[in-house]
Write a structure and sequence with these properties.
Blueprint (H helix, E strand, L loop, with lengths): L1 E2 L8 E7 L3 E10 L4 E11 L3 E2 L2 E2 L2 H19 L1 E2 L2 E6 L5 E10 L2 E2 L6 E2 L1 E2 L2 H11 L8 E13 L2 E4 L6 E2 L1 E12 H12 L4 E7 H9 L2 H6 L1 E6 L4 E7 L2 E8 L6
């Protein structure tokens, strides 16, 4: 069995979808030239030890994850060392917020203000500032997703880098999740010797896989009906406008 190469030198990605009814593991190889994914391994097993995104029996969940990982490794003939996890549950909340920074530079004499081009560091700064919202002590920010930027009075800008201006504003969609739920899920996977590269809210991952760019631009609502929860992601103007988890599913 081949060891999965270092993620910085190869394009093999592993995803684990942990749901209330089933747990899936997929191993994909990304073709950089055409941006397509070749499926190398896929495994699914009945879920145990988790319900509505909350772990109810840690030992059973770890056993189930280990089984699905082993089945995917055998199919793909690859030893998994790291993966991305999907997460959902009633504890996840989303909000829309915004922040702005000044880009003015004083050139010599007082009052001589000139515009300058927007750099990547400015974009990072305004996105970090947008995360400065009041959250409960048990909540962490899971995603900071830009919706659009405003440069001075110019709106609906998707990428402001290189543009000239005096003020940069970012409108973002924040997804928050319970810190305990995140840490417990990560620890279950890490106990199996798997490094967690990141977490993704389930409907966002489903939207990226199922929706076309034109649909996201014109406006579309993705409804992901699960066993115990229903996830929703609303897109318009090529940006995520709303996301939520409803504690009702097909088995409820």
């Amino acid at each position: 069995m081949k060891i999965m190469p270092n993620k910085n030198t190869q394009q093999i990605t592993v995803g684990i979808d942990i749901g209330s009814s089933k747990i899936c593991c997929a191993i994909g190889q990304v073709n950089i030239e055409n941006n397509k994914i070749k499926l190398l391994g896929l495994a699914t097993t009945k879920s145990r030890g988790i319900k509505r995104g909350v772990i109810t029996d840690r030992d059973k969940l770890i056993e189930t994850i280990e089984k699905v990982l082993t089945d995917a490794e055998i199919m793909g003939n690859i030893k998994i060392t790291s993966s991305y996890l999907s997460i959902t549950g009633e504890h996840i909340r989303s909000i829309n917020t915004q922040a702005a920074i000044a880009l003015n530079r004083v050139n010599g004499a007082a009052g001589n203000i000139m515009e300058r081009s927007i750099e990547q560091a400015d974009i990072f700064q305004v996105l970090n500032l947008a995360q400065a919202v009041s959250l409960p002590v048990d909540k962490d920010i899971l995603h900071t997703i830009p919706q659009e930027y405003v440069v001075d009075t110019l709106e609906e800008i998707k990428n402001p880098q290189g543009m000239m201006g005096r003020r940069l504003e970012a409108r973002v969609h924040l997804v928050t999740a319970a810190s305990t739920a995140i840490n417990n899920l990560i620890s279950c996977v890490e106990e199996l010797g798997i490094t967690v590269d990141g977490l993704v809210f389930q409907p966002i991952a489903s939207a990226l896989a199922a929706l076309e760019n034109d649909e996201m631009d014109l406006g579309v609502t993705l409804v992901e009906l699960g066993s115990n929860t229903t996830n929703i992601a609303v897109y318009h103007g090529s940006a995520l406008r709303h996301s939520a988890t409803i504690p009702i599913g097909s088995a409820s």
